[in-house]
Specification:
The complex is a heterodimer of chains A (203) and B (103). Chain A is an all-alpha fold and 203 residues long. Chain A has a domain of 128 residues: Four Helix Bundle (Hemerythrin (Met), subunit A) (Up-down Bundle). Chain A is built from six helices and no strands. In chain A, helix 3 runs antiparallel to helix 4 and helix 3 packs antiparallel against helix 6. The N and C termini of chain A lie far apart (47 Å). Chain B folds into two domains: 65 residues; 37 residues. The longest helix of chain B has 33 residues. The chains are: A mainly alpha (203), B mainly alpha (103).
Chain lengths: 203, 103
């Protein structure tokens, strides 16, 4: 049981190989550097969020219900990815694993669709990046997360194809583990986003 | 058999994580929707809920705990936390201080 060699969900002891720890640790290093990037975008946003330069203010362009829907879809997708990780680890059927990845992908794409709708809505109200410091910082921060989720979706598609072609090898297993880390990490960034950008803006 | 138990344990972990995440974010959204407190108090409550939720995500989705076996990685995460704290708090301090001096 105590065969844990890196943080995050581990493969079963029999499935681990000498390279497992290294590739997983490397991905943690990448994720933490990504966390620093997001933290600085948050700092920029926090220092500019009051500078509306006569343009729209946060309370006028943010909406509570879409933000809540986006939060719900992303949270659900995190747990369906958890089910996919367990299916991979405990060798449940390939159909179930692929199915869970597909559900995660659909939820991720619903999230992207909702966000695109929000951005278009803001643009219609004249809230575009060049209007004010607040909007420049907003459109630097939130679409960076959007792009991460979009790349995560591409990565899920790639993994679904790789599972079809190569099956569950050590390589595809650890790639799935890393994709899982990435996906759960994006959810954490979203928690900070909805709390300190959307909810704070709506107070 | 042992696998089944381990599977059940890990499944429970994700379920607890999902319930906690839904409750905590639901509470934050409800606070803003009904605004029972003045804005400053609300902001503090939202920040507290966000912190709790981030910790729940780390614990239940990313499986981070304080076990002996992987201290290196825990140090990486804690050190990143320190760097983030220094850079964010430092930037905000300087920017807001400058802002006040400009008034």
């Amino acid at each position: 049981m105590s065969g844990r060699i890196h943080p995050g969900i581990n493969l079963r002891a029999g499935d681990q190989q000498p390279t497992t720890e290294g590739v997983m640790f490397g991905f943690w290093v990448f994720m933490m550097s990504d966390a620093v990037l997001f933290a600085l975008l948050f700092a920029v946003y926090a220092s500019l969020s009051g500078n509306t330069a006569g343009g729209p203010e946060a309370g006028q362009v943010f909406k509570l219900v879409p933000a809540a829907l986006e939060t719900g879809t992303l949270l659900l997708s995190s747990s369906t990815f958890g089910l996919a990780s367990l299916a991979m680890k405990y060798r449940q059927s390939m159909a179930w694993l692929q199915g869970m990845l597909a559900v995660t992908l659909v939820l991720g794409m619903i999230f992207l669709g909702l966000e695109i709708h929000d951005f278009m809505d803001m643009a219609r109200q004249g809230a575009v990046p060049q209007v004010s410091g607040f909007l420049s910082a907003f459109f630097a921060l939130v679409p960076t997360h959007f792009l991460h989720v979009a790349f995560g979706c591409v990565w899920i598609v790639v993994m679904m194809l790789q599972l079809r072609v190569f099956g569950l090898t050590h390589t595809t297993r650890t790639r799935l583990l890393r994709l899982g880390l990435f996906w759960h990490f994006l959810d954490i960034v979203w928690v900070m986003l909805f709390s300190f950008v959307f909810l704070r803006g709506l107070l | 058999m042992e696998d089944r138990q381990a599977f059940g344990r890990e499944l429970r972990r994700y379920v607890i994580g999902l319930v906690l995440a839904l409750v905590l974010s639901g509470a934050a959204f409800a606070l803003v929707a009904w605004a029972p407190l003045p804005p400053d108090g609300l902001l503090g409550a939202i920040a507290g809920l966000a912190l709790l939720q981030v910790m729940a995500h780390f614990r239940f989705f990313l499986h981070i705990d304080l076990k002996q076996s992987h201290r290196d990685d825990l140090q990486l995460i804690l050190f990143t936390g320190l760097i983030i704290g220094l850079m964010v708090a430092g930037s905000l301090w300087i920017i807001f201080n400058q802002n006040q001096r400009m008034m």
